[in-house]
Design a protein that fits this description.
The structure holds 2 protein chains of 2 kinds. By secondary structure, chain A is mostly helical. Chain A has 2 domains: 48 residues; 78 residues. Chain A contains 6 helices and no strands. In chain A, helix 4 runs antiparallel to helix 5. Chain A is flat, with a radius of gyration of 24 Å. Helix content of chain B is 59%, strand content 8%. In chain B, helix 1 packs parallel to helix 9 and helix 12 crosses helix 18. Chain B is elongated. By secondary structure, chain B is of the alpha/beta class. Classes of the chains: A mainly alpha, B alpha/beta. Chains A and B meet through helix 1, helix 2, helix 3, helix 4 and helix 5 of A and helix 1, helix 2, helix 3, helix 4 and strand 1 of B.
Chain lengths: 128, 481
């Protein structure tokens, strides 16, 4: 019980020290700014998507959060212990599934959305 | 410029390409280009990450990426378009899982690893006090959020996948005291998260992980098959938020921007979808809709009223001599995989000079906008696909409203009977057309389990059978007329 109390005390002291240190708090505020601005950008951009494209929107935004791959690579790249390495490798694998699968299927879907036949013909001729 | 600055600039460019991709989705015309721009941005971000200094385990990293790509590419290339919802569910789930793992790994590194940043220097995220490392409380909070949200998204998506893939029943799974148990689970997750916050002990991290896995499963089980698409949109949003939380944890603006974009847009999309179903989000998530009502609906249908059923020949002639035909496709069309035949019918009619367009309800299909994808796959030009608000003013001037495998989305009860479970849901006004043709499998009510007065309307003719078969018969009949 005393052990827990002491470690709790030490933890709180450490946390206070870390939080009070202003350079780091500034950093967190900076991230928070980016976060909040992104919320507004996200809402603004999505409100313009017509319902005809809602499925590609879900699949496309699904691919975008696959950017967690970058995070997975960073934590694996800095892993020093075996558990960290194992979890990191798993994270990289899962994130790759997300990003690759998401983009491929979105592209496949969007490729199918075509305009009137004459437009399509023109485009096909242009390709040929 | 230092290497760090260049890499940060690469990440900034990547974040901008993601915004451009979402902007591109405002029209089918530039949507594909936008998506390819995002692919470029993602490639740049991954390339920049490889250029980070002191990267270890490169062999494992490249191996895991190669394996992931080897699995994902064929899966997403060859999956049927009708199976898109479950594919999105599974890719979303693994993304959430990855986000949770990144948070956990970073926490392990902060508490136990030999990270240089953790030597007790003031102003760092963790501090060493007499040989033991302590992580700042806000840092743990980010980890807690990342683990809970990412893990719930992972296990929830897995169950959603199983429901859509029909590996388990699509019906809501209910058991006694379900809501109470779920509430207890939710509270337990919060409490364990708080304990982790205060003690910083790894034990609580593992307990939290297990509880969040169970919570994801328990949360999704009572949600019925037709509501699962709304759920996927919500889970997609969760994964985005989990990615943003991981971004806070490892200090990456790119992850914060991308994750938040997806999180915010997902929540907005979820709200738009529940509005299209005329129901509130809590109602969709917590009411186990479809289990109770289906039971009462089947008795309601047998009230002795008679319907008029026609032959393919009669209906074919009616269609062939119309000026304007509006096709209203629904879930039944997707189930019967009849998107190509319905396109053929539209073509045949257009060749005779009949004006044809498709009126698409926002929640038609197995996912919002899914019907549009299916019809696009069958080469229907997107300008023939009209959204509900655009189609409704045209229906009073239509000679025929051809309802293919849809029911609830044209049910006038949504407008006229306040007691109906779908009351308030916007519908396609098929009843306004001069003639109404229903292609239906049977007299069974739609998903909401309620009778449709439109079936008994004197303007209505029914043609029973599998949508693919009846449409094929109609094509032949129109050609013969």
């Amino acid at each position: 019980m005393t052990g827990l109390a002491i470690s709790l005390h030490a933890a709180l002291a450490a946390q206070n020290a870390a939080v009070a240190a202003s350079p780091h708090m500034n950093q967190v505020l900076e991230y928070l700014t980016v976060f909040i601005l992104s919320v507004f950008v996200g809402i603004e951009v999505i409100s313009k998507v017509p319902s005809i494209l809602h499925t590609p929107l879900m699949s496309g935004s699904n691919a975008i959060h696959g950017v967690i791959l970058v995070g997975a690579m960073l934590v694996l790249g800095q892993a020093t212990t075996t558990p960290e390495t194992i979890l990191g490798v798993l994270a990289v694998f899962l994130a790759t599934l997300n990003v690759v699968g998401g983009f491929v299927v979105t592209d496949r879907m969007l490729e199918m959305f075509k305009g009137k036949p004459q437009e399509r013909k023109k485009r096909d001729e242009g390709d040929a | 410029m230092s290497r760090g600055t260049v890499l940060d600039l690469c990440y900034l460019v990547a974040a901008v390409t993601f915004i451009i991709a979402l902007m591109g989705l405002s029209s089918p015309r530039h949507a594909r280009r936008g998506n390819l721009v995002a692919v470029g941005g993602m490639t740049l971000a991954i390339g920049a990450t490889f250029a980070q200094p002191h990267l270890q385990h490169l062999g494992w990293m490249i191996g895991a990426m190669a394996l992931g790509a080897a699995v994902a590419v064929p899966t997403s290339r060859f999956v049927k378009m009708t199976a898109i919802p479950q594919l999105v569910a599974i890719f979303n789930g693994v993304g959430g899982g990855a986000a949770a793992l990144v948070s956990i790994t970073e926490y392990l590194a902060l508490t136990g690893g030999s990270r240089l940043s953790c030597v007790g220097a003031p102003g760092t995220a963790c501090i060493s006090v007499s040989g033991v490392k302590y992580v700042a409380v806000y840092k743990i909070l980010e980890v807690v959020l990342g683990v809970i949200i990412g893990t719930v998204s992972f296990s929830g998506s897995a169950i959603a996948f199983a429901k859509l893939q029909e590996l388990m029943t699509g019906r809501p799974v209910t058991y006694p005291a379900q809501q109470v148990l779920n509430a207890v689970l939710g509270v337990a997750v919060v409490v364990v998260g708080a304990l982790l916050l205060v003690t910083g002990s790894l034990v609580w991290l593992w307990v939290l992980l297990v509880l969040a896995l169970v919570l994801g499963v328990a949360f999704v089980l009572p949600i019925g098959g037709a509501d699962v698409p709304v759920l996927i949109s919500l889970l997609n949003s969760f994964t985005g938020i989990a990615v943003a939380a991981s971004g806070f944890t490892i200090g990456s603006n790119l992850l914060i921007v991308a994750g938040t974009l997806v999180g915010a847009s997902g929540i907005l999309l979820t709200r738009m979808m529940s509005a299209a179903m005329g129901r509130s989000l809590p109602n969709i998530l917590f009411s186990a809709f479809g289990s109770v009502i289906t039971a009462s609906g089947s008795t309601e249908a047998a009230d002795g009223r008679s319907v008029r059923s026609g032959t393919a020949e009669d209906i074919g002639t009616l269609l062939a001599y119309s000026r304007k035909v509006v096709i209203i496709p629904g879930y039944g069309l997707a189930v019967a995989q009849a998107q190509h035949v319905v396109r053929e019918l539209a073509d045949t009619l257009q060749a005779r000079g009949v004006e044809v367009f498709f009126a698409i309800h926002p929640v038609a299909g197995r996912m919002p906008g899914h019907m549009n994808v299916l019809l696009a796959e069958a080469n229907v030009p997107y300008d023939e696909l009209k959204e509900m608000d655009e189609a409704n003013p045209e229906l009073p001037t239509a000679d025929v409203a051809l309802v293919v495998g849809a029911n609830d989305t044209v049910n006038p009860a949504a407008k006229s009977s306040p007691g109906s479970p779908i009351y308030g849901m916007p519908i396609i006004d098929a009843g306004a057309a001069a003639n109404i043709v229903f292609l239906k499998r049977s007299m069974r009510p739609g998903f909401a389990g309620i009778d449709n007065d439109l079936l008994y309307n004197e303007k209505t003719v029914l043609l029973f059978g599998d949508a693919k078969d009846t449409l094929t018969a109609l094509v032949a009949a129109v050609k013969a007329a």
